Amino acid sequence: MRLYRFGPEGFFVATDAEGAPRVLHSDPFEDRPGGWRLGRRVDFETAALLAPVVPGKIVGIGRNYVEHALELDNPVPAEPVLFLKSPSSVVGPRAPIVLPPESDRVEYEGEVAVVLRQTLRRASHEQVRAAILGLTCACDVTARDLQKRDPTFARAKSFDTFCPLGPAIDVEPDLDAFTVITRVNGEERQRGRAEQMSFGILDLLVYTSRMMTLEAGDVVLTGTPAGVGRLEAGDLLEIEVSGVGVLENPVEAWQGG
Fold first, then answer.
1. Angle at the Cα of 178 (from 92 to 249), degrees rounded to 5?
2. Mean of the pLDDT values across residues 153-173?
3. What is the pLDDT of residues 35-82, one digit of tens each?
4. What own/partner pairs with CB < 8 Å and gap ≥ 24 does 127-130 have?
5. Domain 51-253: CATH architecture, name and number where available
6. What CATH class has 1-50?
7. What is the value of pTM for the model shown?
8. Longest dimension (CA), the chain
């Protein structure tokens, strides 16, 4: 089952047993998918698709794939590396990624994102599993030149449009068996699997919940596989996660204003 969000009202839509999208009359953060009440069908062709969640905070995980750490000449961490990304960086499917004038090298990082449905604070593995709403596609867009200059990641990661999310949330995911693929202009650039992660999803959330309280709607980016690279104006970026679908975003140059 997949969960979508449409505008301009930002209402939720869930797929039924036949895969048809229907208006959701339940609260996805309060009610379990098995008990969701579905209404009329929605025409995907005429509805504006939004990012599937509006997070209160976005937690990123650095260097969670060994080969990615090595390609950046960074050590493989002994414990998860956490950073925060501004919630104002979120955009939805088909929204442009805008290259800011402050950076000369903006790069893609295709990732699997976890969306939470409940608060987590110093949680156990069992509590974490119960608190996960599902998985979605994400791109942790990064101004690599600024990241290398700054002592923290905040500026390099938080420009407007630097966190595309979507197109849907897979609310019945297999947390131990997924694939994430990044394509630029149709060419595959990244491919990662769950078993290649240094720290799995449950371990990441247990660890993160000890450092900060995670709340319903928060998003945790689980790290990117090897193959990161530069984005140019005119590119079409695609992030695909098994069970979720394909997130598409064009890349545009800064126009001022």
1. 20
2. 98
3. 999 999 988 766 789 999 999 999 999 999 988 878 878 888 899 999
4. 128/202, 128/205, 128/206, 128/209, 129/175, 129/202
5. Alpha-Beta Complex (3.90)
6. mainly beta
7. 0.96
8. 52
